[in-house]
User: Which sequence fits this backbone?
């Protein structure tokens, strides 16, 4: 019984996060390449959070070999 409850709560949590992400996309997301930092060990996420209150991700752009720090944040 407790496993069922935990599983149900987990599913509700995941669905809530998905709805939140979809709502964020409707509001508009902007992005910026943070050139002043190298990707690695959470540096990208920390700088993005500090600078734009957003989510930083290290991404390899098409046709390039190096990672770039993309900061995704809500457009205001």
Assistant:
């Amino acid at each position: 019984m407790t496993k069922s409850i935990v599983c149900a709560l987990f599913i509700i949590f995941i669905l809530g996060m998905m709805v939140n992400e979809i709502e964020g996309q409707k509001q508009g997301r902007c992005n910026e390449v943070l050139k002043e930092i190298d990707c690695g060990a959470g540096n990208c996420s920390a700088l993005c959070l500090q600078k734009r209150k957003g989510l930083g991700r290290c991404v390899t752009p098409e046709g390039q070999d190096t990672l770039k720090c993309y900061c995704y944040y809500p457009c205001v």
User: Anything to note?
Assistant: The first strand starts at residue 29 and ends at 33. Residues 59 and 68 are 5 Å apart (CA to CA).
